[in-house]
């Protein structure tokens, strides 16, 4: 987080839980991601664990320190992910959760929660 | 300390100097403007840039984690506002007064004031930024998409695994055929920026054109081929690939406006300027700061 010190380039006080009103200039799509066909493997994951695992994959891709606060609300773009990072994060999530995410969904995931929700839906299909 | 810094802190205690005005690009021209964040070091100047933004854009900038990300987000908003303001549409356009909206697919556009007798120009723009470069492309009329990336950018995943997952078979084949891993990495980045630029030019969001539904062919010239009409190279779009400052690739995709004889595309007429808004502007097209590495481009 930016420190409001004399040497900080932004003299304004940074917000602790940023609410982004204008979407990141590079994110255009607002469509809900479509579902991919599920594979035959039983594994049900609880919500907080999913968010935690997604956060871990995100931190690894963006080379963020382990103690960086990443929650469901955290936007990939705000953490420094560009579109290439986002696609790589989805590849990492596919490996982590043994799922397959449709190509167009990869680009439309904006927050950690978006990713966790999508994963939950895909995994739920497997449990059903 | 940079000698510039002392002058700037004196000058910026009051108002910012005026922006150098520029003529709108002609129908056939593309203007490329860019800022190198590492060269913008003055805290007072960056504060002044922040003051140009409406509250919701300041919030957006501050929403990025860490100084470096906030700085490039700030410079992106500053670059787009000051660049469009330079064209002096409607006489005294203040970068502060510009309003933006999104089209139905989410692509950002200028929201011109509706006034009697004022006919807004068909100005098109697109921005792209990394932590080390912020760029804005401007045209009159022609849809534009741009994407910038560091040449040295490395993927965490293996390139071919990534390409097999997200690119088309032809593109995988093209990458696979490159024996040198360094060159392969660079080709991958070039392909990525070209594909991004195309989708951004289309302006319909990434969901409407997943990367594995179109191929970028870059053998002689650069062209896009959509999978649903494979025999039909999509002639509506033309591309330029530039190497900027020896360190970055810049891909530009434009809607084709006119053709030369026998349907042949005319080269892209490009004017490139490096800028630190309110401080300095430098015409760099035709110098070795901007090298055309793909597509048909004439630099002015």
Automatic annotation (TrEMBL), chain A:
Presence of keyword Plastid: yes
Entry-linked PROSITE patterns: CARRIER, PHOSPHOPANTETHEINE
Native organism: Linum trigynum
Protein name: Acyl carrier protein
Localization, UniProt: Plastid, Chloroplast
Domain Carrier: 48-123
Function recorded in the entry: Carrier of the growing fatty acid chain in fatty acid biosynthesis.
Molecular function per GO: acyl carrier activity; phosphopantetheine binding
Lineage top rank: taxon: Eukaryota
SUPFAM superfamilies listed in its UniProt record: ACP-like
Gene Ontology annotations for the cellular component aspect, listed alphabetically: chloroplast
Family as reported in the entry's similarity comment: Belongs to the acyl carrier protein (ACP) family.
Keyword terms: Chloroplast, Fatty acid biosynthesis, Fatty acid metabolism, Lipid biosynthesis, Lipid metabolism, Phosphopantetheine, Phosphoprotein, Plastid, Transit peptide
Gene3D superfamilies per record: ACP-like (1.10.1200.10)
InterPro entries reported in the protein's UniProt record: ACP (IPR003231), ACP-like_sf (IPR036736), ACP_chloroplastic (IPR044813), PKS_PP-bd (IPR020806), PP-bd_ACP (IPR009081), Ppantetheine_attach_site (IPR006162)
TrEMBL record, chain B:
The keyword Secreted belongs to this UniProt entry's keyword annotation: no
Keywords on record: Transferase
The organism's place on the tree of life at top rank: Eukaryota
GO cellular component: cytosol
Entry's Gene Ontology molecular function annotations: holo-[acyl-carrier-protein] synthase activity; magnesium ion binding
Gene Ontology biological process terms from the UniProt entry: lysine biosynthetic process via aminoadipic acid
InterPro entries per the UniProt record, alphabetical: 4-PPantetheinyl_Trfase_dom (IPR008278), 4-PPantetheinyl_Trfase_dom_sf (IPR037143), AASDHPPT_N (IPR055066), P-Pant_transferase_sf (IPR050559)
Domain 4'-phosphopantetheinyl transferase: 144-253
Transmembrane segments: none
PANTHER family assigned: 4'-PHOSPHOPANTETHEINYL TRANSFERASE SUPERFAMILY-RELATED (PTHR12215:SF15), PHOSPHOPANTETHEINE TRANSFERASE (PTHR12215)
Protein name: holo-[acyl-carrier-protein] synthase
